[in-house]
Sequence to fold (176 residues):
Amino acid sequence: MGLSGAPYRFCPHCGDRLAPRVVEGHALPGCPSCPFVAFRDPKVVVAAIAVDRQGRVLVIRRGIAPGLGEWALPGGYVDFDEHPEQGARRECREETGCELGPVRLEGVFHVRLADAGLVVVAYSGRVRAGRPCPTPEAPELGFFAADGVPRLAFESHREALAAWRAAAPVVGAGVG
Fold:
């Protein structure tokens, strides 16, 4: 990492060494020879609240950091070429073996880390196909009653679950 946690130390356009530059009141690494500025954009992450016919929530015990060994909602980074909704469906399938039916946006949450930022987009939906099966990213997983979900590792997941509980139940056919 370069200045202020930026991924660059040199300009990717002209190769000059970056130096602090104030842009809209923020000190950011910028090129003294061209207009390049290394903005610190947040990463987009998704979380899926996958629900079975009984209204139970599918949660995973994480097999990777961060939160190794802790409970979480299925989720992960959104690929550059996919809509966050597609990312939530993909992450749920990859981590649990379960397919989501129609989904509903539950909320958008900001996470500020020491050297980065995340925007977490949470969706809920009924499990329409598949059976939960362990994966390297989720070596343990299971359905829990909405009021019996273990403490989740990430505040954004806890906030998403609270938003889901406060809203009307997810509609649609499911399995489970």
Q: What stands out?
A: The chain has a mean pLDDT of 92. DSSP finds two helices and nine strands in the chain. The radius of gyration is 19 Å. The beta strands are 19-23, 26-30, 43-51, 57-61, 71-72, 75-77, 99-112, 117-129, 140-144.
